Amino acid sequence: MEWFQSNPEDTNRGDQPGPARLNSVPKPKGVSLTEAISMTSVRKTFGKKVAVEGLDLTVNRGALLGLIGPNGAGKTTSIRMIMSILFPDSGELSVLGKNSAIESKDRIGYLPEERGVYKKMKVGAFLRHMAALKGVPSDGAATKINEWLLKVDLPDVAKKKCEELSKGMQQKVQFIAAVLHEPELLILDEPFSGLDPVNMRLLRDLIREQHERGTTVIFSTHVMAQAQDICDRIVMIHQGHKVLDDTISDIRSRHETRVIEFEPLDPSGLESLSIDGVTGTRQGERAWEADIGDGIEPARALASLASAVPVNRAELRRPTLEDVFIGIVTGDGASEEELRAAVRAGAVVTEEEE
Amino acid sequence: MNPTKILRVAAREFASTALTKGFLIGALVVPALIFAMIPLIGILVNQAKPPTEQGEVIVIDRTGSVGGLFADRISPEAIAERRMELTEELAENIPDLSAVPGAADAQESMNAALQQALGEVPKISVDQRAADADVEAIKEQVRTTLTDGVARDDPDRLLGALVIAENAVMRGDGDEDFGGFELFVRPKLDDRTVGEIRSAARWAILEARFSANNEDREELNRLTRVNAADTQEITETGTREASFELGILLPGAFMILLMMGVFTGGQYLLTTTIEEKSSRVVEILLSACSAMELMTGKILGQMAVGLLLTGVYSSVGIAALATFALTDLIDPMALVYMAIFFILSYAMFGSLMAAIGSAVNELREAQSLMGPVMLLTMIPYMLFLPISRDPSATYSVVLSYIPPISPFVMMLRVTSSEPPATWEVLLSIAVSGAGALFCLWFAAKVFRVGLLMFGKPPNFATLVKWVRMA
Questions:
Q1: Which residues of B touch A130 (CB under 8 A)?
Q2: Quick check: ipTM above 0.90?
Q3: Touching check for B468 and chain A: CB below 8 Å?
Q4: Which of A142, A279, B119, B406 is geometrically suited to a Cys-Cys bond with B50, CB 3.0 to 4.6 A?
């Protein structure tokens, strides 16, 4: 599933920063190939509700990591604990070598999910205020602010009040506030929500640029396709537990697909057609889909389908993160259809919640 | 905590509140306009023309000796002469202010005020009737003129009837007391005119009595008059006229100034905290500084706003006292204590406001949590007179050691006529300081949890739960 067109030149989105790009972009001070974040057995509850349970997470410096999961999974709570906005009930946590992000807030950029601005404040003044709070010297802040406003296509807004900007424009201003001080660690919680496709692409490029300059980027989303497109390493959280922590390529290789996508020349009568090694066919979102029977080799099912039905195209579907997530949590009692619909809507239905 | 970040937050908080048109107009310009309006109102009142009363009073003098005296006494010439004497007498008793700039204008203004208070000299003529005239018939005569629509300045307008009792001058046999007079007037007669008639009637009756008894009125007046100079207070440098009203009002003024600064700053703190929470900017701020730094900065910023207000109003008050050479009523230590108690009371109420602001989603929801806090503040407000009059009473002493109202009550006691011992003030400062620390600790816990809590507004039990959770 492609969320938006990937940059074909961008081949390095792994745990380690691309050396070629890092040579051309100045590194933030103090960057080393050690851990940027380390969480061990972290637990957080709100009253009786367990938000995060036994979370172990290590993020190396320079990584671009996607934190995914449906709404209410525990992503924002985890991020707030990393930012020392919330504090864990138990477990150990270190950020940029410190026991608390409070000690290194000037080295961290954060775009929260619940974001806002001082509505009556002018954009320039707001950004100067944030820059000052982040320790950016006042003499250089104005120049940086102007450069960033130009970069995000907001050249004339510095003297406008924040409330005069559209939501998308405000979001770009908030992003500037998060990166103005050239952080070593950038945490973005649902950064694309509310953006139009053009601004989504702009923001994606800016995130990649930050990563290329050596910044460790953690990016949370409930839209799994977004993480799949930008990140190479994925941490998946479900009901407060980490259920997956791997690179995209390893995830795909380990989660074998059991679906064939095909485009028949003549789709009439396909649903009732019996094909050897295939348990059923249906019209999918982008093409027709055929489920491979248990114990059947995918290659054999593919050959059998191709011989039974004249097709323009037939291929084994690459597993998406959504497929992987569905595969992991189907044991919770919900049907696959319910889960898939819920994941796309940003929520998950489980037996416990029902 | 990072002091630079705290100061940065405080500076923004102060600027966003105090450097706005709303604040400048509401908190500074409006009071300044009111001050400016006071002399203007005086000028307008002085320029208002008093009503001119003209007309006739029917006199039924049953004694036969009072009517003529009354007619002489109520004549416009006699009234004007008496007023002239009164003005001269006042001028003699008022201290010499010729050295004070603007005093001459003040003198003129005072004369004008006197004339205004007395009204224009009424032109009243007297129609003496027979001693046995029927009062009811006279009343009926007045009654018939009520609907005539006669103008106030018509000399034939019938104002009323004065009936002098038969025994007003000479007591009847067996009478213990003298008789007096009855006055019947048309409705809505100017009160100053009525006053002149009554005064003249009283004077005429007394004059007739003195004559009948061969007494010298002037001598009797001298015998019954005691000249007592105004009470003087002995100060360190001399003496001054005692002002017992100021002695009672001054502590109240100090307390109200203190309350005004504390609650204005606290109210702004509540509002800006709710705004930051509801506009969701708070989490962006928390990415740059800790909750404690944010709260401390906000409290300091709004404390500066409160101090500014208190400073402005205190300066106006001191300037007013200086105008009347009464600055020695204020003990400089009282100003020092006021600054200390302002900080302590603001730390208590401000932190509670910050906690409440962080816990709710909109101003309306804050009302239920504010109720108990505001109720506490009413205690010194309601007890200000008893505490000022009796600053050493048990309830005054006890309340001055109970935070969060201790700063207000101790301020009342410090500026009262019977200030407490220094150790008592220091003890109150210590107790208030402990209260301030507790409130800050409580607020910090609530603030950290509450800022990111949305949904159902909490009650006090929930706040306590958050404190345990944080």
A1: 284, 288
A2: no
A3: no
A4: B119
